[in-house]
Design a protein that fits this description.
- The chain is flat and about 65 Å long.
- About 5% of the residues have low confidence.
- The chain is α+β, with helices and mostly antiparallel strands and 146 residues long.
- Strands 1-2-3-4-5-6 form a 6-stranded antiparallel sheet, with no helix packed on it.
């Protein structure tokens, strides 16, 4: 009887040890997000308006960004630019990273997990090429009021 109880105790002790080891691999889940510590923080503003910043939180979010004015002083091509990236560990335990640029062409993000749009159909590509090659024909609707 004592041997059976001792065997059960060894099995339970082993399971507890394995559980503790596995819990150490899982990132700590904060129940109150106001308690998440900032591990690293840096912000560098410059006199010309450009800046750099980065930070890291206690639960694995890492972000960095820089901003500047492109073609400063040229009103025709001057544009504000923001470039950066951030990463985080999702609920599935996978690290997700997003790189982005925001400029005169809009906001563009890239990441392995972000869906890609389907390719533009060939007929639409031909139509765009035709409209670019013959703008006087593609703008004919402006001459007539329907």
């Amino acid at each position: 009887m004592f041997k059976i109880l001792f065997q059960i105790f060894k099995i339970l002790a082993s399971l507890c040890f394995i559980s503790v080891v596995e819990l150490q691999r899982i990132p700590y889940q904060y129940s109150n997000l106001h308690q998440v510590p900032i591990v690293k923080l840096s912000y560098e503003p410059n006199p010309d308006g450009s800046y750099n910043y980065n930070y890291e939180t206690g639960h694995g979010i890492v972000a960095q960004q820089r901003g500047y004015v492109k073609n400063l002083g040229n009103p025709q091509t001057e544009a504000q630019v923001v470039e950066g990236s951030y990463s985080y560990i999702g609920p599935d335990g996978i690290q997700y990273t997003v790189n982005y640029v925001a400029d005169e062409n809009g906001f563009h993000a890239q990441g392995a997990h972000i869906p890609k749009p389907p390719p533009v159909p060939e007929a639409i590509q031909r139509s765009i090429a035709f409209n670019s090659a013959y703008p006087e024909i593609s703008n004919i609707h402006k001459k007539f009021k329907f």
